[in-house]
Amino acid sequence: MSELFVASLPYLIALGRCIFAVVFVMQILPMLIWAERKGAAYIQDRPGPNRAHVLGIRAAGLVHTLNDVVKLIMKEDIIPGHVEKRYWAAAPVIAMSVALCTFIVVPFGDNFMGYDLKVSDIDGGLLFVLAATGMGVYGVMLAGWASNNKFSLMGGLRASAQMVSYELSMGLSAVVVFLIAGSVSLSTIAEMQAGVAWNWTVFTPVGFIAFVLFWTAAFAETNRTPFDLPEGEAELVGGYHTEYSSLRFALFFMAEYANMIVASAVTATLFFGGYNTGIVTPAWLREHADWVLVAAAGAVPVLLWFAFEAHKRKQRPFYQALPAGDARLKEPMVFVGIWLGAAVAHLGIGVAGLMGLASKLSLDFATFGMMSGVFESLGMSAETQGTVFGPDLVTAIVGITVLAVKVLFGCWFFIWVRWTVPRFRYDQLMDLGWKRMLPLAIGNVMLAAVWVAVFPTGLLSTFFGSK
Amino acid sequence: MALPAARKLSQPVSGAMSLGESIYLVEMIKGLALTMTHIIKNIFDQDRFRTVEYPDVRKSMTERYRGAHRLLLRPDGKVKCVACMCCPTICPAKCITIIAGEDPNDPAEKFPVEFDIDMLRCIFCGFCVEACPKDAIRMDTRIYEINAYTRQAMIHNKSYMVDLMDGLKPPAEEFYRANPDSSPAGFSVDQPSVPVGQPAVNQVGGGV
Prior knowledge:
The complex is a heterodimer. Chain A is mainly α. Chain A folds into two domains: 265 residues, no CATH class; 114 residues, no CATH class. Chain A has 20 helices and two strands. Chain A has a two-stranded antiparallel ribbon. By secondary structure, chain B is an alpha+beta fold. Chain B has a domain of 113 residues: Alpha-Beta Plaits (2-Layer Sandwich). In chain B, the strands form two sheets. Chain B has a three-stranded antiparallel sheet with strand order 2-3-5. The longest helix of chain B has 20 residues. Chain B is elongated and about 90 Å long. The C terminus of chain B is likely disordered. The chains are: A mainly alpha, B alpha+beta.
């Protein structure tokens, strides 16, 4: 290892963390667009997107998202003659970059080989989130104003008024979490919720009210139904993004979903333990990393069932009606292969765990011995960091997976609500924000202060312990 | 069985909300439960969808569905039609053109030398079937994809309509192209199937 590499390692790791955070969001994003379409279809008893295919693989409509990307890139980028060009061009960039920025304070795990599993350890973590979402309104506002037409301006005005109104309730419900955790750093807040699920903030009365308020405000902040008045297409054409086409529109479109992901991630971290499993602490995971690997084999029956169901799809009337030689005929078998492959992979992980258990060796030597050598040469050995590579990797992967599951459920909830409830009227929106949620949030903060004074470690933890 | 009393439409709905309804959260959860029921049902039983995945899967029409017309034959192989002009007379769209002729071998009856139906004008009312005294024309083919690139190919003539049945004969344009002798007046085989300057047809199966 050259000394230059060792010297630049912290920067490389910082870069890696940045890339990971962006990739995390950008990977979930197309899945969300798919989930939105498929979820809407299933709620409305339709099959949803299923036509586009690559070599006969339709992947239940996921290919349509790919189609969208190609379409949006290939489209003509129209700049209307009447817009304020500089601000108009800046608006989608602001919307998207702010949405991605917010993600940098969300922790993915406690640490990995002594390095924090988050992009930046800002002390005022949650304050940064609130500040960044506050910046998010600039994207929408600038787009609405610079588009230089009445409807876009109306959309921008609505967005700014709505975001400012709901930021109050959002901030005040976050204060409840500050009070309970005694810190604004998201890492500290997540660490506080380690262990059993009743350590989660949402399982205290004040925390639950704060969660409902925060989550409602998150809907307004991300401009999602039932609060999507800024782009109310019935009365405002497309709202603030009416004048945008091509990739600029795609940026707004992606920013909406990126905002959903960030809002879900922040909510998961504040109220649902973040990367914590809700069953065991990260320390326990490190000690029993072999058992975690064995538990991964528990997915095998589920994956086998998926493969069986994929195989059964061959009998569906659709495949029966296809002419011989149609590329889509092989699709069920491809999916059988994918699920079986995943099952074998999980089985392999389980066997690796069993081997680790049986040989009484630490996981580090059993499976990651060589990798560990590489890390030791970088000065990240067990002696210097107090951790070993294998268990740390397992803990990190469990943390990221748990957070991803929580984030995906949050995003699904956004979609689920969108296709369930109709849009609010504007006066109803303001009424809810100022007359109902704000007083409730203020009262809740006072209640939280009393609560924290009475039960400093939480009600259930007081009686049942926190491990 | 007594019907439940209907709400009077004149009663205002707003202002009638109970406390639980005005809190909104409970009603919201009810709504979410309803939509989730649909999703779960649809995931586990995809046959619930009424959507027909056309063109891969085609809807099978009922027997009484009025599709494209067909002309019936007598046991001796000649058309049943005697060119009585009942159907062009009753046709509200004036889409049936019959040119009657006499058969020297069968002096008792006339027969249609030409029997054209302009499918662009036909409104599928079925009056021609009702009016026919000889049961010579029926609309029981269940063919509903009647389309072509030229107006000429939209005319179904006698040779096409004889023994027409879903799945037995190709679409009219293809049929005329294969049998130019029996194509209607004005139909040209040389005409390209996709007129120049028109976008190409959607390929069956889509694709990226």
